[in-house]
Amino acid sequence: MDQTDSYPVKLYVYDLSRGMARQLSASMLGRHIDGIWHTGVVVHGKEHYFGGSTGITNCPPGGTLLGPPDSVVDMGSTEVPEDLFKEYLTSLGESKYRGANYNLFENNCNTFSSEVAQFLTGRKIPSYITDLPSDILATPFGQALRPFLDSMVINPGGNNLAGQ
Amino acid sequence: MADQGAADPGNNNNNKPEASEGTIIKVTVKTPKDKEEIAIAEDASVTQFKEEISRRFKAKQDQLVLIFAGKILKDGDSLSQHGIKDGLTVHLVIKTAHKAADGGSTSASSSTSTQAGSTSTSNPGTNPSTTTGSTGSAPPPTQTPNILTGFGDLGGLAGLGMGSANFMELQQQMQRQLMSNPEMLSQIMENPLVQNMMSNPDLMRQMIMANPQMQQLMERNPEISHMLNNPELMRQTMELARNPAMMQEMMRNQDRALSNLESIPGGYNALRRMYTDIQEPMFSAAREQVSVRNTSLHSYSESGAQPSRTENREPLPNPWGPPTSSNPSESGGGSTGSSSTTAGTTPSVSNPLGINPGSLGNGMFNSPGMQSLLQQISENPQLMQNMLSAPYMRSMMQSLAQNPELASQVLMNNPLFAGNQQLQEQFRAQLPIFLQQMQNPEALSVMTNPRAMQALMQIQQGLQTLQTEAPGLMPSLMPGGIPGIPTGGAMPTENPASSPSSAGTNIAQQQLMHQMLQMFAGGGGGGGSTQTPEVRFQSQLDQLNAMGFINREANLQALIATGGDINAAIERLLGSQPS
């Protein structure tokens, strides 16, 4: 049997609120959330994530403006080699994950991470991350803020890879 | 190994399970753009599967790469080998024939146009050698060849985080990096290349004008373009930027000048206007971490009734001094009719948050939650800055200020306050002031200054300890006697006489306390305090320094003698009678 390489895949999780969500969410939202999560998928030595307006970007792991991740989830490993992965990302970036398609609730960095993780390893990312938008929308506060949150984009900064 | 299915590829059809014993399963095949459901025999081989797929997706079989559960499906394998069953999803990537097509050409073209002299700024100290451009656009090395790989192995530079396609991107990136690393700015400034460039006002002007936000800003305020066009001024500003100490001086002067404005009737509004028009867009231009596309949020009117302040009569009150009773009475009139005299303080320049030092000890800041919050804030100045300068935050503050009902509701639900009636009362009273102050640019600058926040925290801690050690000292500050939460402060057991829990206003105790303070101040920590007076009075020393008292020894002496009371220390230094 020929050996195919196996590349580890990790999920870097960042709390955009730097802990404030954990402290203030119960009072402001009416329910407790542990953080405002942003994620990036690290594979082949790079961190890939979907940012508003820049689209799919990559940078050295932990190299965004957010600094080192708050937690790292091991997603297993993948056989997908780097060039194939890049192709895949390019395709994604031309379809669902254009910069302009960024939507904080429905098509955000975590959606992207989830899809990529699925592609690479067949596993999904932890649900507390993907459930966040619906959790927030379920609160009256979230509903009230929705129109203006809708126009927000989150973009931690990196360099551009694909699809704009 | 591949002979489970029929060797003849033509045999397998969508509908008919010819010559294979397995059942038909439906497998979803998902590409980045597309998704199709394909029916295939359960025991089919990957080759057969690919056949089917190539028909459906109209691609050549050798362009297809199938991935399932992180594994690449090789032609020789079978579906069941990988555990592909009915209803599962397999990922497909269709390899394009020419990888050179996407990504390469676009970045190449845009980069060549921006190379003219502009890339040097985008390369702060880390990469001074790349003046010949092309840094911005070298795509990651594994990507296809493009024009720029001809420049040598500059592809590797992409890893430095400079791999973006155009100048705007670069600028933004640089800004972001600057924000995340304050020392970078000084590094950049020291880079001779940068300095060279900075001393060329024309170039600087061009660069600044190229930034779209600046352009917007300039449209709104033609004065800014005047400023930019004045070479003398530019040069001065460059000098300033180069020399951080000078910069601080100037900022301080400006601040003081501004604060004088405050006391003129109508001055507050003018200040506010100024802040809204100039600083705010600059802030948002500089801090694009969280950008709001909908700029209509920026339009907020000149609301916020001017707080009824008359001329500033009091000498700038000393927020660090021991809480005096003269404070509340004057401010009682100024604050919006709060009945509890200790809760409000007329916000004034040096006390922009309107914090009555007395109430700090037992006020809203007391709970551990708030404290850790403050600690976090002081540890992470970025947080506060971002929080406060995000445009939506400001408009939220705006609406909160306009609607105290809403604000009090929001805050009452805060578990920090729940269950503590008194806190709630106090806070409610302070609320309007508090909110207004949040919008005061002075307040904002205090809150964004980590040292200021730290100083505030130190004050609190000090006050809390004072409270527990000698509650008799501050009878006027404990309406209802909310006990402070001791923070293991620096005032240790040198005061054995007064028990921490006694709330009685004992004259003897007060005297004892005073004596202790003197001893403390004179001995510089006799009772086991862990810090030298110099360290303890660090912030006061800085204050005195800023005010122009440059004789550190004398300052220190004065501070020690007065126990950290800046006002008294100043008077001491000036030779008049200590108060």
From TrEMBL, chain A:
<keyword id="KW-0378">Hydrolase</keyword>
<keyword id="KW-0645">Protease</keyword>
<feature type="domain" description="PPPDE">
    <location>
        <begin position="7"/>
        <end position="150"/>
    </location>
</feature>
<dbReference type="GO" id="GO:0006508">
    <property type="term" value="P:proteolysis"/>
</dbReference>
<dbReference type="GO" id="GO:0008233">
    <property type="term" value="F:peptidase activity"/>
</dbReference>
<dbReference type="InterPro" id="IPR008580">
    <property type="entry name" value="PPPDE_dom"/>
</dbReference>
<comment type="similarity">
    <text>Belongs to the DeSI family.</text>
</comment>
<dbReference type="GO" id="GO:0008474">
    <property type="term" value="F:palmitoyl-(protein) hydrolase activity"/>
</dbReference>
<dbReference type="GO" id="GO:0070646">
    <property type="term" value="P:protein modification by small protein removal"/>
</dbReference>
<dbReference type="Pfam" id="PF05903">
    <property type="entry name" value="Peptidase_C97"/>
</dbReference>
<protein>
    <recommendedName>
        <fullName>palmitoyl-protein hydrolase</fullName>
        <ecNumber>3.1.2.22</ecNumber>
    </recommendedName>
</protein>
<dbReference type="InterPro" id="IPR042266">
    <property type="entry name" value="PPPDE_sf"/>
</dbReference>
TrEMBL record, chain B:
<dbReference type="InterPro" id="IPR009060">
    <property type="entry name" value="UBA-like_sf"/>
</dbReference>
<dbReference type="GO" id="GO:0005829">
    <property type="term" value="C:cytosol"/>
</dbReference>
<keyword id="KW-0227">DNA damage</keyword>
<dbReference type="GO" id="GO:0006511">
    <property type="term" value="P:ubiquitin-dependent protein catabolic process"/>
</dbReference>
<keyword id="KW-0597">Phosphoprotein</keyword>
<keyword id="KW-1017">Isopeptide bond</keyword>
<dbReference type="GO" id="GO:0006281">
    <property type="term" value="P:DNA repair"/>
</dbReference>
<dbReference type="GO" id="GO:0031593">
    <property type="term" value="F:polyubiquitin modification-dependent protein binding"/>
</dbReference>
<keyword id="KW-0158">Chromosome</keyword>
<feature type="compositionally biased region" description="Low complexity">
    <location>
        <begin position="337"/>
        <end position="350"/>
    </location>
</feature>
<keyword id="KW-0256">Endoplasmic reticulum</keyword>
<dbReference type="InterPro" id="IPR015940">
    <property type="entry name" value="UBA"/>
</dbReference>
<dbReference type="InterPro" id="IPR015496">
    <property type="entry name" value="Ubiquilin"/>
</dbReference>
<comment type="subunit">
    <text>Homooligomer. Binds signal sequences of proteins that are targeted to the endoplasmic reticulum. Interacts (via UBA domain) with GJA1 (not ubiquitinated) and with ubiquitin; both compete for the same binding site. Interacts (via UBA domain) with ubiquitin and with polyubiquitin chains. Interacts (via ubiquitin-like domain) with PSMD2 and PSMD4, regulatory subunits of the 26S proteasome. Interacts with ATXN1/SCA1; interaction with ATXN1 inhibits polyubiquitination of UBQLN4 and interferes with PSMD4 binding. Interacts with HERPUD1.</text>
</comment>
<dbReference type="Pfam" id="PF00627">
    <property type="entry name" value="UBA"/>
</dbReference>
<dbReference type="GO" id="GO:0005783">
    <property type="term" value="C:endoplasmic reticulum"/>
</dbReference>
<dbReference type="GO" id="GO:0048471">
    <property type="term" value="C:perinuclear region of cytoplasm"/>
</dbReference>
<feature type="compositionally biased region" description="Polar residues">
    <location>
        <begin position="294"/>
        <end position="309"/>
    </location>
</feature>
<feature type="domain" description="UBA">
    <location>
        <begin position="531"/>
        <end position="576"/>
    </location>
</feature>
<feature type="compositionally biased region" description="Low complexity">
    <location>
        <begin position="102"/>
        <end position="137"/>
    </location>
</feature>
<dbReference type="InterPro" id="IPR006636">
    <property type="entry name" value="STI1_HS-bd"/>
</dbReference>
<dbReference type="Pfam" id="PF00240">
    <property type="entry name" value="ubiquitin"/>
</dbReference>
